[in-house]
Amino acid sequence: MSSETSFRKFKELVDALVNAEKGLTAGTLRLEELEAACNDARALYERLVVLRHKARESAVGHHPAQAPTASMAQTTAAVPMVEEPVVTPPALQEVAAPVRLDTRPAQDASPRQTSLIEAIENTEQEQAPEAARSSSTPSTATKGGNKPPPSVAEKLEKAAVGDLHKAITLSHKFWFVAELFNGDRINYEKAVEQLNGFGNLADAKAFLQTEVITKLKKPADPEALSTFTDLVQRRYA
User: Fold this and answer.
1) Backbone phi, then psi, for 202, in 5-degree steps?
2) Which of 40, 45, 193, 203 fits a disulfide with 198 by CB distance 3.0 to 4.6 angstroms?
3) How far is CA 208 from CA 61, 180, 188, 212, 214, in A?
4) Contact criterion met (CB below 8 Å) for 132 and 199
5) What is the end-to-end Cα distance of the chain in Å, rounded?
6) How far apart are CA 60 and CA 67, in angstroms?
7) How many CB atoms lie under 10 A from the CB of residue 105?
8) CB–CB of 174/127 below 8 Å?
9) 165-176: per-residue pLDDT in tens?
């Protein structure tokens, strides 16, 4: 998280969001208060993502064996164990494929952190002249088969990225570190810093190929690589 904002406890974030919801319901929530509520919601979400990631690591790394109960111990002592050969079914004799931990972020996580208020304002400004023209001439969208104007979500998907550090959410950062940087967070930070500073897209893509992809210890996850490459391309759009 950014060091510009002081650390706030979970309860403070939740209380702030509850107050914002009351103001929104009453119609008294101002624009700057809505912006603050968005920041609080993002901070709460990112903190929950960190907790979920740690919980997954604990679940994968710790599987304590079940301790024998008293009844089991008594049965073992009373009846001598007779070892029998274990016969493995033919279907299980094949070597199992290695299990790959799913590090992809939740489906609701987005790689963009563009302000929703700014996006809505930009869309309204762009659509205003078009609406004025359409009011004076009949619409031909349905007759001529023209595509409808792009939605806010579609524009955000293609929006230019000014800073990769700010554009990559916390959940996507964990994803990229695990799948594209061999789990090394320091190398990830250095690579993103360098990808931010190139003069053109060609140099950035060359760095991505030689310093990231070729140094992977395992084949890159196609979805993670495609998402990361798209962010780099939008950085130089």
Assistant:
1) -60, -45
2) 203
3) 31, 10, 11, 5, 9
4) no
5) 26
6) 20
7) 21
8) no
9) 888 999 999 999
Q: Decide if pLDDT at 95 tops 60.
A: no
CA distance 236 to 56: 35
Position with higher pLDDT, 13 vs 192: 192
In this structure, the number of other CB atoms found within 10 A of the CB of residue 147 comes to 6
Q: Give the Cα separation of 144 and 126 in Å (integer).
A: 22
What are the Cα distances from residue 62, in Å, to 54, 57, 65, 112? 12, 8, 9, 34
**Hey, what are 169's tokens?**
């959410």
Euclidean distance between CA atoms 149 and 131, whole angstroms: 11
What values do phi and psi take at 162, rounded to 5?
A: -85, -30
Q: Compute φ and ψ for 230, nearest 5 degrees.
A: -60, -40
Q: Which amino acid is at 50?
A: V
Look at residue 222 in the predicted model and tell me its pLDDT: 93
Residue ranges of alpha helices (H) inside the chain are 10-26, 31-61, 70-78, 116-136, 152-158, 164-167, 170-180, 185-196, 201-207, 222-235
- What is the rounded distance in angstroms from the CA atom of residue 208 to the CA atom of residue 132? 45
Binned at pLDDT 50, 70 and 90, residue 226 comes out as very high
pLDDT digits (tens, 9 = 90+) for 128-159: 555 555 555 544 444 455 666 666 556 556 67
Which residue bears the tokens 């759009």?
A: 237
Alpha-carbon gap, residue 39 to 30, rounded angstroms: 14
